[in-house]
Amino acid sequence: MFGYYFKLGVRSLRRNPALTALMVITLAIGVAASVSTLTILHMMSNDPIPEKSARLFMPLIDPGSLDGYTEGEKPDDIQISYQDAMNVLKSGLGVRRTALYGVAAPVEPPRRELPPFTMGGLAPTRDFFAMFDVPFAYGQAWTAADEARGADVVVLSRPMADKLFGNVNPVGQRLKLMGFPFTVVGVTAKWQMLPRIYLLQGGSPYATGEEFFIPISTAVRHETQHNGGMSCAQDIGPGFAARLVSDCTWVTAWIETASSGDRGDLESWLQNYAVEQRKLGRLKRAAPTRVYDVQGWMEYTGVVGKDSKLQAWLAFGFLVLCLVNTVGLLLAKFSVRASEIGVRRALGASRSDIFRQFLTETVVVGLAGGVLGLLLALGALQLIGMTGKSMANLARMDWEMLGLTFVISVSAAMLAGLLPTWRACQVTPAIQLKSQ
């Protein structure tokens, strides 16, 4: 019977084209507004590495001074000091550990037709690539020996490698970076983590991926300045070496464990480490150490802002307003068919039959509104993506959101059709037959 009612629903769309078009457009606008906003929120709150998110941990250690500090207050800093990061690397915790900071470096392209320019990248340890599942198109990460001696080696992103060397394998080629000759040891394949949880300093969490990678030991040896924020509780004096031994926070550390159950071991080690450091005169605030997994880190740092959540609620409020209008239009559409309902009831159709028929018609309206709403949502996302590179990375609809578009549209149409359908079922056959 559903197929028969569906055909009736399709035919009913042509009975009053103007009213039908108004219903479909009203529903489509509400669906497009809610889906486009929800798509942005979905991409913002997306788990960037679901297969590992429960096994990747970010340790936070507060080395700030006591000046202006209130016990128990939440610190704003989301980085740690260089010496704390190096101690995390030496701890042997987990199966992989990395320390990193953002860098920007001038490059002299080997292709003479290109002028010098500045690249944005990252200075991590070699474990970073395996930890965050970075794929390689050519070559591989630098070796442990390269990292130990701070060798001048670089891993390029595929777009940057193509720009600098053309569409060839550049592994083994030389590149003048920061005024020094660097050897290309690898080229990453297409890779971009959204949000960019591994480093939330130095740009948007949804910005374009890194253009190059150099060992953190190399960056420190060349005294490469960080590209991002730094918090210092006191004057540390001039020179890069002073920064390395200071309590300024400008480095990020991550630990990968074999299972999520190893979190307790990390927390215990971090607490014991804090006690030892206080004996050495550091960590004067005696603030508790913290360990966050990926989802906890996103929540703690507020990757998805309150404004984005408010916009999503407003969009759904607009959808409700569209539903109210759709209810009125459906009432008008069904009310003129009272005589038809009366005849069907007189011929033996039950109220449940009438209910199913008219509710199926609202499903047809919902499907039509879903198709139009999807097109409008895609157009809206295109316009949003034109506002900047970060938004372009977010304004993309995946299969999950594509399916949700039709679920929202059909569900909204059925919800809007409940009252009109119930009213249609209340038609008295005798009254309608006498009026004919």
TrEMBL record:
UniProt keyword list: Cell membrane, Membrane, Transmembrane, Transmembrane helix
Highest taxon listed in the record's lineage: Bacteria
Membrane-spanning parts: 21-44, 313-336, 357-381, 401-419
Domain MacB-like periplasmic core: 20-225
Topological category with respect to the lipid bilayer: Multi-pass membrane protein
InterPro entries found in the cross-reference section: ABC3_permease_C (IPR003838), MacB_PCD (IPR025857), Macrolide_Exporter_MacB (IPR050250)
Protein's cellular compartments: Cell membrane
Primary location class: membrane
Signal peptide: none
Residue ranges of domain ABC3 transporter permease C-terminal in the record: 314-428
Protein known as: ABC transporter permease
Source organism: Massilia niabensis
